[in-house]
Amino acid sequence: MLDALPLTDVGKATKVPLRMNALRDAVLAELAAAGIRVDAGDIVCASVGGRPHVTLLHLADAAGRGHIMERLNRYSYDWEFAVSPE
Predict the structure, then answer these.
(1) Cα dist. 74→8, 14, 20 in Å?
(2) What's the CA gap between 28 and 30, in Å, rounded?
(3) Contacts of 56 (CB under 8 A, 6+ apart)
(4) What is the pTM of this model?
(5) Which pLDDT score, from 0 to 100, does residue 10 have?
(6) What's the distance, CA 45 to chain centroid?
(7) DSSP string for 71-85
(8) Contact 38/29 with Cβ under 8 angstroms?
């Protein structure tokens, strides 16, 4: 339960942060259902060009990436693995 809705800089109510939190929760649940443990801090959700976008951080294991791709490619939101610095 929230005490108040998030507000824009001009004081209008906005649901975007709520949608991003719900998206992060959905990604966490989907990965957990596949047996993939990820911290909430490793999932960055944002609105990019008006569309929901997920970036997954700190997931370098190739086998894990394959399982994640199988789980998340069936959804309509955009997502990607963060590029690891080399």
Answers:
(1) 32, 28, 18
(2) 6
(3) 27, 38, 42, 43, 44, 68, 79, 80, 81, 82
(4) 0.79
(5) 87
(6) 4
(7) HHTTSSSEEEEPPPP
(8) no
Q: How far, CA to CA in Å, does 4 sit from each of 16, 18, 46, 47?
A: 14, 11, 20, 21
pLDDT at 59: 66
Residue 73's pLDDT is 93
Domains, the chain, ordered by start? 16-81 (3.30.1340)
Residue 50 Ramachandran class (φ > 0 left, ψ -120 to 50 alpha, else beta): left
SS3 25: helix
The CA-to-CA distance between both ends of the chain, in Å, stands at: 42
Which carries the bigger pLDDT value, residue 82 or residue 54? 54
For 15-72, write each residue's pLDDT tens digit.
888 899 999 999 999 999 988 888 889 999 999 998 999 999 876 577 778 888 989 9
